[in-house]
Amino acid sequence: MADDPSAADRNVEIWKIKKLIKSLEAARGNGTSMISLIIPPKDQISRVAKMLADEFGTASNIKSRVNRLSVLGAITSVQQRLKLYNKGWLASTFP
C-alpha cells in the first residue's frame, strides 16, 4: 500500500491535515474572543499584520467595555502568534 516513500509522505500529510481539521472543528470560543485567520500560502505576513493592526484600531471604537477588551485581547493574541511564524515556515508547511 505505502511501499513508495512519496506515498508514505503523502499519507502522513493527509493524516496531519485531518488531525488539524478535527482540532479546528472542536475549537470553541466565548462570543467575540475567538478569531479564525486563514492566510493563503503565498500571502505576505506583513500584509496580514497590517490588516490586524487596522482591525485593532477599529475594535477600539466598540462601545461595550467587555466586548472591546475581549476583541482587543483576541487581536493582540493573534498578532503575537503571527510574529512566531515567518513566510518561509508557511510556504514550506503549506506549499
Give the N-terminus to C-terminus distance in angstroms: 25 Å
**CATH level-4 homologous superfamily of the largest domain:** eRF1 domain 1
Structural category is mainly alpha
Order of helices and strands: HHHH
Instruction: Supply the CATH architecture of the largest domain.
Output: 2-Layer Sandwich
Low-confidence stretches: none
The CATH class of the largest domain, by name, is Alpha Beta
- Helical percent range? 55-70%
Which shape, going by the Cα principal axes? elongated
| Strand portion | under 5%
Number of helices: 4
Number of domains: 2
Q: What is the average of the pLDDT values?
A: 82
CATH topology of the largest domain: Translation, Eukaryotic Peptide Chain Release Factor Subunit 1, Chain A
Largest sheet: none
Query: Care to count the β-strands?
Result: 0
Oligomeric grouping of the chains = single chain
Radius of gyration: 17 Å
Report what the structure shows.
By secondary structure, the protein is mostly helical. It folds into two domains: 29 residues; 63 residues, eRF1 domain 1 (Translation, Eukaryotic Peptide Chain Release Factor Subunit 1, Chain A, 2-Layer Sandwich). It is built from four helices and no strands. Helix 2 packs antiparallel against helix 3.
